Amino acid sequence: MIKMLEDIDAVLFDMDGTLVDSMWVWVAVDEEYLERYNLTEPATFHEDMEGMSYREVAEYYHRVFPTLPMTVDEIMDEWHEMAYEKYMHEVPLKKGVKEFIEMVRKEGVKTGIATSNSRKLAIETLEALGISHLFDAVKTSEEAGAGKPAPDVYLLAAEKLKAEPSRCLVFEDVPAGIMAGKNAGMKVCAVKDDFSEPMAEKKRALADYYIEDYDDIKNGTYEVTLQEDA
Q1: Closest by alpha carbon to 143, among 162, 115, 177?
Q2: Is this prediction's pTM over 0.90?
């Protein structure tokens, strides 16, 4: 058994930037949306939205851009239309992740997703990639009632899997998500992603482990960034 997986009953994945290489989609959607409605991006735009649930981001848009002529639900629906084709045809899995999931499931470890994305888009993406059968639970921050770094979505996923939080291992790509897993009392492995590369050292400081890709786990080349218990 790989040391990272000792005493672990459930592995939980964030989706965007962690399970799939998709953060670029939302940068593109934001740019297109701002141009479509002639909106000016605030100085701390992406920082403000980090970790928010799908609905919380739409509420943020509604609040920051009061000239938008639609409801929060209409904003979310429009984003779904803008992102759908990209998720269905252009978003790949992270390197080595499918093989890693298959490996842990063979060991009897449960697997789940805890995402800030919409449930509809998450389910559609898993089905398009042919991996929906590899997960025992899919939970969203919107369902949990709070975005990351609040622990709610990870605790909800653990509850669904009937796993104690202390026996869960989380994979995350941004600081807010890493903090959500740690706030839930779980171990967290940070995953490299181009979108959050400028925050790599912060991710290492917050997480228990760090990987360049999921092959690092199989190869034993992952970084232990916090001292493990003796």
Answers
A1: 115
A2: yes
